[in-house]
Specification:
This protein is α/β, with parallel strands linked by helices. It has 3 domains: 171 residues, Thiamin diphosphate (ThDP)-binding fold, Pyr/PP domains (Rossmann fold), CATH 3.40.50.970; 163 residues, Rossmann fold, CATH 3.40.50; 188 residues, Rossmann fold, CATH 3.40.50.970. Helix content is 37%, strand content 17%. It has 21 helices and 20 strands. The protein has a 6-stranded parallel β-sheet, with helices on both faces. Strand 15, helix 14 and strand 16 form a beta-alpha-beta unit. Helix 1 runs parallel beside helix 6, helix 3 runs parallel beside helix 4 and helix 9 packs parallel to helix 11. The longest helix has 16 residues.
């Protein structure tokens, strides 16, 4: 039996007490009158830093990115109705990115429920298809039970978002309550017989390949994956926007399963055994669900039984924590020193060649040169965040992610992620340099969060790759309807001046020679900074120019 003593407190006080019991250090919010009882309780919790955001979408993006950066539940508070709908983008992101997140949403008073009261929404219906659990707390004395379970569900199994609705009158209602300790997260161990069978198949294969996903990162299994790759003499490719699941400079790294033709795709296509570790095999990772090939042997390791076989049926499935499964395999002998030497060398060489930028003519700044300068100017443990759109392709292809937890990007592909996620990453890891990246279109979607960085003195550096267009959509227009583009041109503000107006440093770079000095100055300034990198619209993507797209359509 518990030896804790019940205390009389309000629902809001109990909620904050639960956050403290789970060692929550940051919460993100746009304040609202529907959860004043929780805000008041946070006044008496100085160990929790409350980040005041400028829009609920930015707040929930930050909470999601914080969860991704720490592998603990990111916490977001928003008000009812419009606040909840704005925040929904972060919930959708947390679902597809498998990120632990708890969104607390204010709700109308209980006596007004079901009357279409001011800003009332049924959150179970609204969030039901994109959250692991949606619940409304109807009595203050249930707060400890519900909040403790919400935090557990968000972080356990396949991580994901939980939405908790808070009727405003419930938050000020008093009751006798006991605050429970955090529920320990279960890390299931693999079945030894299945591990034995997996190792036998792996050692017998001539061209095996490992696909490493976010499950490796959430299990903190990166070091074990490196040992596994070396022990079993196998190349590792990473799932979409999970580049940092394996060190990119390791000789066994085979590349990232990104959009377009990549060496990683070739490795999977030609493999005689595909071992999937902690990946849900999303649309982009699988090249529109064409990889692995029909009938290609596949083994899948995942902590969540619901992920197994969801897109492709494996011949062998292991339900286990990724780190524990890899550790268990290491107790078995591998194929021997020197095995698959030519295969590994070819895989590594193909990826190294693919990751070397080739210069193209540019009127303004060539992105290929920017990538070389970033490698030269940034420490190995620098964290990069990427946004949606073509601008992210250079950063994902040419920048080598050498350290653990060095890339944050939305696998859901939503725009506006780059800036909020950079702020969250810096809060999670204040000792590391954090570089946010966005295209100009994506940057403008959450630019108001620059004020959040300045207010809370979060010294991130944000690179805006500015070509004056919604580049990805323009690329699709030029590919399918060459010369017939509409709605994609952008007339942008002066981003450097905009940064200075917020109280940050602002730089404009119009030629490659000026980029590295600006980057180094921004790093040494120890103040939020924006670098407006003027690029050429003609170089529309990492693989093609507008002229090349138009020419290809004529053939």
């Amino acid at each position: 039996m518990s030896n804790k003593t019940a205390q009389r407190m309000t629902g809001g006080q109990a909620l904050v007490a639960c956050l403290k019991a789970h060692n929550i250090r940051h919460v993100f919010n746009v304040p609202g009158e529907s959860y004043l009882g929780a805000l008041d309780a946070l006044v008496d919790a100085p160990e929790i830093t409350v980040i005041t955001n400028r829009q609920e979408g930015g707040a929930c993006y930050m909470a999601e990115a914080y969860g991704k950066a720490t592998r603990t539940p990111g916490i977001c508070f928003v008000t009812r109705g419009p606040g909840a709908t704005n925040a929904s983008i972060g919930v959708h992101c947390a679902t597809q990115d498998s990120t632990p997140l708890v969104l607390f949403v204010g709700q109308v008073p209980r006596k007004n429920r079901g009357r279409e009261a001011f800003q009332e929404i049924d959150y179970e219906q609204f969030f039901g298809s994109i959250a692991k659990w949606v619940v409304e707390i109807d009595r203050a004395d249930k707060v400890p039970e519900v909040v403790t379970r919400a935090l557990y569900l968000a972080a356990s199994g396949r991580p994901g978002p939980v939405v908790v609705s808070l009727p405003e009158d419930m938050l000020v209602e008093e009751a006798e309550m006991i605050i429970p300790a955090a529920i320990p997260i279960n890390h299931p161990a693999p079945d030894p017989e299945l591990v034995h069978r997996m190792v036998a198949r792996l050692n017998a294969a001539e061209r095996p390949v490992v696909i490493a996903g976010g499950g490796v990162q959430y299990a903190r299994g990166r070091a074990e994956l490196v040992r596994f790759a070396e022990h079993f003499r196998v190349p590792v490719v990473t799932a979409w926007r999970r580049n940092d699941a394996f060190p990119n400079t390791h000789p066994h790294y085979g590349g990232n399963l990104a959009i377009g033709k990549t060496p990683a795709q070739a490795l999977v296509t030609e493999a005689d055994l595909v071992l999937v570790v902690g990946s849900r095999l999303s649309e982009i990772t699988t090249n529109d669900y064409t990889l692995p090939l029909p009938g290609q042997p596949m083994i899948q390791i995942d902590v969540d039984n619901a992920v197994i076989g969801r897109t492709f049926p494996p011949e062998l499935a292991i339900i286990a924590d990724a780190r524990l499964a890899l550790e268990a395999a290491l107790d078995h002998p591998g194929p021997g020193e020197g095995a698959r030497a030519d295969y590994l060398a070819q895989a590594g060489q193909a990826q190294q060649a693919f990751a070397q930028p080739t210069d193209r003519p540019a009127e303004h700044v060539a992105m290929e040169g920017v990538m070389r300068d970033m490698v030269e100017g940034l420490d190995e443990d620098t964290i990069l965040t990427v946004d949606a759109g073509n601008a992210s392709a250079w950063v994902q292809r040419f920048y080598p992610y050498r350290s653990e937890d060095s890339l944050l990007g939305p696998t859901v592909g939503s725009m506006g992620y780059g800036l909020p996620s950079a702020i969250a990453a810096k809060l999670a890891h204040p000792e590391r340099t954090v570089i946010g990246t966005s295209g100009d279109g994506a940057f403008m979607m959450t630019v108001q969060e620059l004020a959040t960085a300045v207010q809370h003195e979060v010294n991130i550096i944000h690179l805006v790759f500015n070509n004056g267009a919604y580049g990805t959509i323009r690329m699709h227009q030029e590919r399918d309807y060459p010369g017939r583009y509409i709605a994609t041109d952008l007339k942008n503000p002066d981003f450097a001046a905009l940064a200075r107006a917020h109280g940050a440093h602002g730089y404009t770079v119009e030629k490659n020679a000026d980029f590295l000095p600006a980057l180094r100055e921004a790093i040494s300034a120890r103040k939020p900074a924006v670098i407006d990198v003027r690029t050429d619209l003609e170089n529309i993507s990492v693989a093609a120019t507008i002229s090349q797209l138009r020419a290809a359509h004529k053939k």
